[in-house]
Each structure stands twice: as structure tokens, then as C-alpha cells.
Amino acid sequence: MASTKSFAEAVKDRRTYYALSNESTIPDSRIQEIVKHAILHTPSAFNSQTSRVVVLLGEEHVKTWDIIAEVYKQQLPEEKFNQANKRFQGFRAAYGTILFYEDTDNVREFQDKFKTYEDKFPGWSEQTNGMHQYHIWTALETEGLGVNLQHYNPLIDVRLETEYKVPSTWNLKAQMVFGKPTSGPAVENKEFKPVEDRMKVYGAK
């Protein structure tokens, strides 16, 4: 069942959740609908559509965090790995993971097509990827799921490319973990810097 929250309410309520179970408040088909909607309707510069995602559910989600733990075990001293592995196991215990990528071939295509803006497209690519992340994050939370965003790339890139047959031209940007929350958000009462220091308005009536 779709959420009845307004857009403004959904934006306000979005938070980071770390304590997640391997349950979902919605069927896998609904998760896929949310991701497809974001892919189709999130804007990109010149409609370049450079963002890519991989949705990992069930055993594939678990396997992903086993791979990440294995990679970091080879890279970190034992004490540091033991600390990091507590986080990995927490993410592994959730319901799913979404990998966010940017297709560098697609970015280069638009750099070649619009030479005047050649140096701008990598930055615009990052912007659209962030919008995809925010779109999906907010949508999942309106369905009662908790979400957090991780960045263990680039150490994990090659292993995940191999495991999920991801083209080498896809550049990994983030890993979004989600599941049914088992406690409140990481920050209950978010602190805000004064809006007056962050916003200027001219010509308003």
C-alpha cells in the first residue's frame, strides 16, 4: 500500500537507521517499483541518464556483505578489522542493499557531444547519482523501512564487479542498506544551522 505522506512530510521524516532486521515492510516487487520509478524520473543534466543501480535482496544481500568483510579483512590490521566487522555484520543483518553506480562511458558520450560543457559532466553525474540515492532513500522510508548509506568503495569495486557482472565502466558510488527498523534513527533530534545563514531571497512579494 502506497504511503499517504506528503512530499514535504517524507523529506522531513527521512533519517539514518543503523539497527535493522532482515525483514521488509513491503514485498520485493514494491522495492523494485520504487527503484524503477527513481531510474525513470530522477533528473539528469541534458537527460544524460548516467546513473545505474544493482538491487541485492535475500542471500545476494548477505553475500555482498560477506564479500566486503573479506576484502577489508585482507586490508586492515586485525584490531581495526574487528571493529569494522561489527559494522559489516550489522549491515549484513538487514534486508537488502542497493549499489549505486555512474556509467563513465555514458558520461564521456555526453562530454564528447557537448564540448562546451565537457568539464562539467563529471560533476553533474555526481549530482544525479545523489538525487537517485535521495529519491530511493526517502521513498523506502515512506514505506516503513529504515535506511543507511555506506561508502566502502573503491576497495570493494573489483570483487563486486566480478560477482554481479557489472561493466568495468560503471563506477561505484555508494551502498544503501535497508530493512525493518528495530530501534529509532541514529539521531533522534536533528540539529539545524540557522536557515538565515544558509538562504538568501531577493525580489519576493
Can you give a write-up of this model?
There is one protein chain. This protein is an alpha+beta fold. The chain is built from seven helices and five strands. Strands 1, 2, 3, 4 and 5 form a five-stranded antiparallel beta sheet that branches. The radius of gyration is 19 Å and the shape is globular.
Strand content: 15-25%
Secondary-structure content class: alpha+beta
SSE order, one letter for each helix or strand: HEHEHHEHHEHE
Question: What is the arithmetic mean of pLDDT?
Answer: 97
Number of strands: 5
In this structure, how is the largest beta sheet organized?
5 strands, antiparallel
List keywords for this structure.
205 residues, alpha+beta, globular, single chain, 7 helices, 17% strand, five-stranded antiparallel beta sheet
Write the layout of secondary structure elements.
Elements: H1 7-13, E1 20-21, H2 28-41, E2 51-57, H3 59-75, H4 78-92, E3 96-103, H5 104-113, H6 121-142, E4 146-150, H7 157-164, E5 170-181
Antiparallel strand pairs: 1-5, 2-3, 3-5, 4-5
Helix pairs in contact: 2-6, 3-4
Entry summary:
This protein is α+β, with helices and mostly antiparallel strands and 205 residues long. 45% of the residues lie in helices and 17% in strands.
